[in-house]
Amino acid sequence: MATDAQILTLVQWLSPAYPVGAFAYSHGLEWAVQEGAVTDAASLRDWLADLLDHGAGRSDAILLAAAYNAADTAALAQIDATARAFQPSAERLLETTAQGAAFAQITAAIWPADLPGFTYPVALGRAARLHDLPLVLTARMYLHAFTSNLVSAGIRLIPIGQTEGQTVLSALTPLCAEVAEAATALTLDDLASTAFLADIASMNHETQYSRLFRT
């Protein structure tokens, strides 16, 4: 069972106040809203559920677990290279590398450890292992933070109200736990993504005329 100290460390790492710049990224959602693929709370919930179950949510949890279980630095480097190669667009690569570098820098400064600027899930998985934090809890909280950030983006973009946004997040919380538990039992051989419209959204967002977000 996780201790209070472990839980609070993860709460701090995955808080919106932790300076990884997550607020600047919409993961392609900005284009989806512009094109009418996401228009209200219900379609936002469906979009995010697909991301968690079939897209970046599941794959990030697998990568996080692989980094957590990595035997040595060579294995970590290979996992990070896989994470980079798995990104479907330049913007998604920017999203995971920029957040990962920021996370590694601030975390290593506060909790001294050898933590290179890996992609975000790899950096988080490695940090959790270095500080003896529970793997499944780390993955659950990572996916909840990922979802929370995109709900916040949806509130601003669609727009929807704060109550509707929190209702969406509450509805998706059980799925965050379910995906985390399943994905952390898998290996890199199980990496796959079928959230194709989200990938296309991130590609199209690169040339979107007017943008609030970096992705």
From TrEMBL:
Keywords tagged on the record: Chaperone, Cytoplasm, Nickel insertion
CC per GO annotation: cytoplasm
Family of this protein: Belongs to the UreF family.
HAMAP family assigned to the protein according to its UniProt record, in alphabetical order: UreF
Protein name per Swiss-Prot or TrEMBL: Urease accessory protein UreF
Source organism superkingdom: Bacteria
Annotated organism of origin: Rhodovulum strictum
Main subcellular location: cytoplasm
Assembly and oligomerization: UreD, UreF and UreG form a complex that acts as a GTP-hydrolysis-dependent molecular chaperone, activating the urease apoprotein by helping to assemble the nickel containing metallocenter of UreC. The UreE protein probably delivers the nickel.
GN (gene name): ureF
